[in-house]
Structures are given as structure tokens and as C-alpha cells.
From TrEMBL:
GO cellular component, one term: cytoplasm
Catalytic reactions of this protein: UDP-N-acetyl-alpha-D-muramoyl-L-alanine + D-glutamate + ATP = UDP-N-acetyl-alpha-D-muramoyl-L-alanyl-D-glutamate + ADP + phosphate + H(+)
Function noted in UniProt: Cell wall formation. Catalyzes the addition of glutamate to the nucleotide precursor UDP-N-acetylmuramoyl-L-alanine (UMA).
GO biological process, one term: peptidoglycan biosynthetic process
Domain of life: Bacteria
Family statement drawn from the similarity comment of this UniProt entry: Belongs to the MurCDEF family.
Residue stretches making up the Mur ligase central domain: 107-286
Organism of provenance: Apibacter adventoris
Protein name (Swiss-Prot/TrEMBL): UDP-N-acetylmuramoylalanine--D-glutamate ligase
Main location: cytoplasm
Alphabetical keyword list: ATP-binding, Cell cycle, Cell division, Cell shape, Cell wall biogenesis/degradation, Cytoplasm, Ligase, Nucleotide-binding, Peptidoglycan synthesis
Gene Ontology MF terms: ATP binding; UDP-N-acetylmuramoylalanine-D-glutamate ligase activity
EC nos: 6.3.2.9
């Protein structure tokens, strides 16, 4: 019996353990932190051996195969020891993909992954497909492969998950856009991050499809210098394309064959902002490839509700709109958020910096932001970048103080936008916790 060791006892780790047990591996799970009670109960119930608050070398380094949680840094001491022993390290998506014959649609990019994945899932569900939602979103992919029977999976995939794939092969792969993110995990080398993202297409063949952003310079450059066997289907906000999708500022057009093109007014799309026009087109292409009728695609694109923590409207108080964009953990996400704002903005920003360059936001900040409220333990970089542009900058170290400060800056017709451009771990458990606290404090005003 082959020994499978799983590092990390969160959603993906527990799912991998369940699937490993079902596939008759000798399974052991190890977590450096404390495993949640609900997950621990599952491990005990399924008689899966585990340890927490430690990584014991002798229990890990005797593995035949290791499944690593995307949250464990590549530089962690235990990872270096595993690599020295030459044991294969895979991500949960790689592991799960080997035990399913379902059709996989995998979506990555620096921004818009969750929205586009959810939107694609909505299109397939509305059309009556037997479809699961997994990856970086929803229930663990491996868990669903073990216990569900879906014919299709729509997967949100991060660069960390792609780092540890070997044979993962989606029928439809998407790269939505690229901008510097998580550079602290890629030796501050942007090219390493780019290479990681494009692994999504490395195993695709002539029967598969690669959907990409024609307006993204990094993607264009990659395609000039690298080859994918998959059919290429671009989407663009700037250029007309024969096959794929494009916009002429009034309508979007989607076509993957010669007949039955889809045309839809931009004003009828549920999601606002240019970036969401692009996301809607990408999701629509996946629907067309899968021969979903135009009416179902249009309906889904018109009815879709925004993802929680992504430009999520919270409340209007005394004429001031409060918007939760806690999922904006990099500069590029904030760029899109500010671009879509139509009223003066009080911008709540800050957290754990990931090697951010805020300079590309300066034009939008000059044009749209009237006050900045810093929310983080170290706000020096943000203050240094914007202090000569924005006279009103407040420093806060709790969500309560940040919301109160932003409310005091605001007046009727303004928007308070939580769009942090940073990770959340200095003051919060994760971006969801940050967004939930924001909504709670807004409701207390």
C-alpha cells in the first residue's frame, strides 16, 4: 500500500485525505497549525491518522507521494527536506484530477478568478448541466471527486495550485489577465509568477481550448514565445476578433463557430465595470464551446449577483454608499475597482504588503479619491506614495476605526470603498474575515 502524506488540514487537505482513503492509500495528514474541530471530527470518523501543531520528519519523509496545501510556502523547511529526498509534491487539484474522467474547466488570472468561475458555473447550471464548483472556491475538488458524481467541474485555480501540477489537463483553460501578485512567494521575480500561471495550458492538446485576454500584454508576449496545442480563443475590449469574444463599447459579441453568434448589450450585463465585461465574455466563450444555447448564457450574464467581498454593495447611509471589495488583495484589483467608481471615493487601503507598486494607481487616485484611510500595522509605503496627492490621509489599526474615519470624511453622494490592495493577515484571519468585519461595522453606524 502506497503512503500518501498530506500537508495542511484545511478544506483542500481534508478533501485529499478523503479521496486518498477511498483510493486505498495509507493516508497521513500533518498540519503545523491547529486543525478546525469540524475537520478533525471527519478525520477521526474516517479513521485517518493525523498530527497537528507540528511536522514530524519521520512521519512525512517516508511518503511515496505528498499533497501540499497551496497555503504552505515553498520555502518552508519541511518542503526543502521533501525536495531533497526527491518525493513528488502535488497540489490537491493535480491529485483529484487523476481520479476523475469529468470535463474540467479551469480558470486562473491575477484578478476576476472568483467572479468568472462563479459566472461560468451559473451558465452551466442554468443550462441544466451536472456541474460542480471547486478549486479555490466552494468545497474541495478532491472531496467532490470522492463523494459526488459531477460530469463537469468549474475550477478556480491559483498560481500556488499550479506550482505543483504534473498531469493536470483541463478541457477548457482560461488566463484572464496578469499583473504582479504574490511576488513574495516567487523570489520577487515576476517571470516566475507568469510561468506558474501558464502551466494551466501545458498539458492541453488539440481537442482542448485556451481562452485568453487579447488586451493583456504579458499574455500576448507569452503566446509569441511559447506554444500551446489547444485551440486559441481570445476576448478583447479593444479589437474585433473572428472567433472568441469582443466588445464595441455598446454590445458584446461571442462566437466559437460560423453560425449562432451571441450578441448582448453591455447595459444588460449584471456586473459593472470594464473588467467585468471582459469576465462576462470569457465565461460566455466557455458556454459556447460547450454548446450551451445563447438564451441560457444571456440569462446568466444578466441575472448574476456579485460575489461576496468583490465590489459588493453593503449599505447606503446618509447618502454615502459603502462597498466591500475586501477580495482586492493586489494593486491591479484596486485599479479595476477605482476604474468602475462613478462618485468621489473614500478609499480604505492597507494590510500585509506583497511587494506592491502603488504608482500605477496614481492617475485614478488623483481623479477619484478624496480621502485615504489606511488600515494596517505598517502604512508607511501607502502614505509615502499618496501624501503629496491626497491631503486627507488617516491611519487606523482596526476595522471599527477605519469605518468611522471613512464615514467622517464622507458626505452625500460619496462612496466608501474597502479595496485594500494587500493581504489581510496583519489584522484579520483572511480577506473574508476582513470583509465581514467591514460589513458589521458599517451596519453599526
Amino acid at each position: 500500500m502506497k503512503r500518501l502524506v498530506i500537508l495542511g488540514g484545511g478544506e483542500s487537505g481534508i478533501g485529499a485525505a478523503i479521496l486518498g482513503k477511498k483510493q486505498n492509500f495509507d493516508v497521513f495528514l500533518s498540519d503545523k497549525g491547529i486543525i478546525k474541530k469540524e475537520y478533525k471530527d471527519i478525520l477521526l470518523d474516517k479513521k485517518i491518522l493525523f498530527e497537528e501543531q507540528q511536522h514530524t520528519d519521520e512521519k512525512i519523509l517516508n511518503a511515496d507521494w505528498i499533497i501540499k496545501s497551496p497555503g504552505i510556502p515553498k520555502k518552508a523547511p519541511i518542503i526543502k527536506k521533501i525536495q531533497e529526498k526527491g518525493i513528488t509534491i502535488s497540489s490537491e487539484i493535480e491529485f483529484a484530477s487523476r481520479y476523475t474522467s469529468s470535463i474540467l474547466i479551469a480558470i486562473t488570472g491575477s484578478n476576476g478568478k472568483t467572479t468568472t468561475t462563479s459566472l461560468t458555473y451559473e451558465i452551466f447550471k442554468k443550462a441544466g448541466f451536472n456541474v460542480g464548483l471547486a478549486g479555490n472556491i466552494g468545497k474541495s475538488f478532491a472531496w467532490q471527486v470522492a463523494e459526488e458524481n459531477y460530469e463537469y467541474y468549474i475550477l478556480e485555480i491559483s498560481s500556488f495550485q499550479l506550482d505543483n501540477i504534473q498531469n493536470f489537463k483541463p478541457h477548457i483553460a482560461m488566463v484572464l489577465n496578469l499583473s504582479p501578485d504574490h511576488l513574495d512567494q516567487y523570489d520577487y521575480n515576476y517571470q516566475n509568477y507568469i510561468n506558474s500561471k501558464f502551466k494551466i495550458t501545458k498539458n492541453q492538446d488539440e481537442k482542448d481550448y485556451f481562452i485568453y485576454n487579447l488586451d493583456d500584454e504579458i499574455t500576448q508576449k507569452w503566446l509569441q514565445n511559447n506554444h500551446t496545442k489547444a485551440h486559441l480563443l481570445p476576448f478583447s475590449l479593444k479589437e474585433k476578433v473572428e472567433k472568441g469574444a469582443y466588445s464595441d463599447q455598446k454590445n458584446i459579441y461571442i462566437t466559437t463557430n460560423t453560425e449562432d453568434a451571441l450578441k448582448m448589450k453591455i447595459e444588460d450585463l449584471a456586473l459593472i465595470g470594464k473588467h467585468n465585461v471582459a469576465n462576462s465574455m470569457a465565461a460566455g466563450i466557455a458556454g459556447k464551446i460547450s454548446k450551451i444555447k445563447n438564451e441560457f448564457i444571456k440569462q446568466s450574464l444578466a441575472d448574476f449577483e456579485a460575489v461576496e467581498h468583490r465590489l459588493e454593495f453593503v449599505l447606503k447611509i446618509n447618502g454615502i454608499n459603502f462597498i466591500n471589495d475586501s477580495k482586492a488583495t493586489n494593486v491591479n484589483s484596486v485599479y479595476y475597482a477605482l476604474e468602475s467608481m462613478k462618485s468621489p471615493v473614500i478609499w480604505i487601503v492597507g494590510g500585509t504588503d506583497k511587494g506592491n507598486d502603488y504608482s500605477e494607481l496614481i492617475p485614478f487616485v488623483k481623479q477619484k479619491v478624496k480621502a485615504i484611510v489606511c488600515l494596517g500595522l505598517d502604512n508607511e509605503k501607502i502614505i509615502n506614495t499618496f501624501q503629496d496627492i491626497i491631503p486627507n490621509i488617516a491611519e487606523t489599526h482596526s476595522m471599527k476605526d477605519a469605518v468611522n474615519a471613512s464615514y467622517l470624511y464622507g458626505k452625500k453622494g460619496d462612496t466608501v470603498l474597502l479595496s485594500p490592495a494587500c493581504a489581510s493577515f496583519d489584522l484579520f484571519k483572511n480577506y473574508e474575515d476582513r470583509g465581514i468585519q467591514f460589513k458589521e461595522e458599517v451596519r453599526k453606524l
